[in-house]
Amino acid sequence: MKKHICIVCGWLYDPKEGDAERVAPNTAFEEIPDTWTCPLCGVTKENFELYDDEMPETEAIEEKKQIINDREGLGYNEIVKDVFEVGAKDWDREMFDELIPLPDGTSYNAYIIKSEGITVLIDTVEPSKSHVLFEHLEHINVNKIDYIVSNHAEQDHSGSIPLVLEKFPEAKVITNPKCKKLLISHLDLAEEVFITVDEKTPFKFGNKTLEFVYTPWVHWPETMSTYLVEDKIFFTCDFFGSHRATSKLFVYDEAKVLEDAKRYYAEIMMPFRKHITKNIAKVEQKEIAFIAPSHGPVYNRPELIIDAYKEWISPKVHDKILIPYVSMHESTAIIVDKMVERFTQAGIHVIPFNIPKTDIGQIAIELVDAATIIFGSPVILGGIHPQLVNVAYLANMLRPKAKYVSFVGSHGWGGKMMKQYETLLSNVKAEIVEPTFVRGIPTEENDDEIDSLVNKIIELHKELKNQ
Ligand code: FEO
């Protein structure tokens, strides 16, 4: 039984040991299921090559072996020598901002950099998890913190700064002037604890250098990212983050992490696509080995998340239709079912979301790249059903890049839904396709109207594909 090496990250599969979590010892590489992925970087089995101490090595294997050697002796939470992740996992957190469900929990990452007796902490954790941060500091023998870099003033990263200062009163807080103001107002910190920096002020300590890059609106206007020059690590805080609690330091399952990151992007980044375009251009000016965000695992293949962001912020939409809807007495559901059937037959990816049974985060994820949104609601008390209002309001806040919007539903004797929709969706710059509202239960007589809406949207999607 031969060893195999991951040509992406250098992780070595030794059949004698297996993969501690998923493959039993003494399993030949060939016997591992095709669905298995690299425990370190998450790529599939096809990215592994035969590894033999005796065989001549390709340049790629030589390079990856170097990575393994470099990682020898590093701790479970050590990105590179003397750079540690010391934050906290929140396995049970169910909601963020009391808005988006978190099926995989989340984490508040914080990082320690040690250099020639000087210790720098990058960001902190949600105050309710400060005890975990302190345990992790103790575990890596941190008995002094000289500087705390605060990339972002929101409390899930800054909230434990007062507690860290209480324990290490000699520490100074390094941040930009805008963030300083917010930290003072949110945490009541004293002026004298701050050292303010800007993009032109590198900060040297020991044999390391930090550079600061303003990355506004990912998530708040004061947000910055910090670059550790010597180790090529970008600490990007919310930017590129994913809501995910995992015991793995690095991305473990790329597809899953991208879904979590997309949920995160959808909820708080999507409205700021123009800013993100500029921020990515700035980040790409640096040579990056690792992206270390403040939520979710560290990316040891930075291009994974950078390329995903580029796709999400691009004007490109997918051949996909979302139908968020509410139905009280099945009339709206009948219309939705008919449309779903027709769109399916036309080969279009269509996703109906029965709102009372839907994780609203899934709608947010699909809003990132859907070409069309069709809202469905019955009239209730003269207007749109409140549960649909909630989703339309959210869609309006998130400013999706959809090209087309339409509306369907049923009413008993009239209503003012269109006026409400126009007000609710003022930020959604999509073309409105003539809506269809029926009286009572849809009958065969309504089929023509429904078909007309469906045909129009199918035509528009064909045009989109030809562009
Ligand atoms: Fe994760 Fe904007 O805080």
Count of alpha and pi helical runs: 13
- Any idea what the CATH architecture of the largest domain is? 4-Layer Sandwich
Can you identify the CATH superfamily of the largest domain? Ribonuclease Z/Hydroxyacylglutathione hydrolase-like
For the sheet with most strands, the description reads: 7 strands, mixed
Looking across the biggest beta sheet, what order are the strands in?
Answer: 4-5-10-11-12-13-14
The CATH topology of the largest domain turns out to be Metallo-beta-lactamase, Chain A
What gap, in angstroms, lies between the N and C termini? Answer: 52 Å
Query: What is the count of structural domains?
Result: 3
Q: If you average the pLDDT, what whole number results? A: 92
Query: What's the gyration radius in Å?
Result: 26 Å
Overall, the morphology is globular
Structural class: alpha/beta
Give the percentage of residues in beta strands: 15-25%
The CATH class of the largest domain is identified as Alpha Beta
Low-confidence stretches: none
Strand tally: 27
| Helix share, percent | 25-40%
User: Which small molecules are bound?
Assistant: MU-OXO-diiron
